[in-house]
Prior knowledge:
Helix content is about 55%, strand content about 0%. The two termini are about 25 Å apart.
Amino acid sequence: MPGVVGDIPPPDRSGAAVFDLTARLPAGVTTLSEPQVVMAETVQSLFLHRGQSLADPPTAAVYRTSMELVGLLLAGALATGELGRGQYATLKNLVDGAAAVPGIL
Length: 105
């Protein structure tokens, strides 16, 4: 069922369909941490499972806009007191990491 994370297969680490994540690092970045690699592989795996790819510029643009919306929702929850500063910081860090995925692929 689309939208249920439990049906997403784990990233393919066999090497057959895996992007070389170090080949397209953002300017000034020389290495990726293991969490960044896992995040990129997991997010891309979800998209590939749905017949999409974040390596496709229009798909990546929509994804970035969606992640921006999630950031706005978090900021709103912080502003209204639904999230504390620590909770906001933790969630914002996760969202920022996920939002960076198209630039890594």
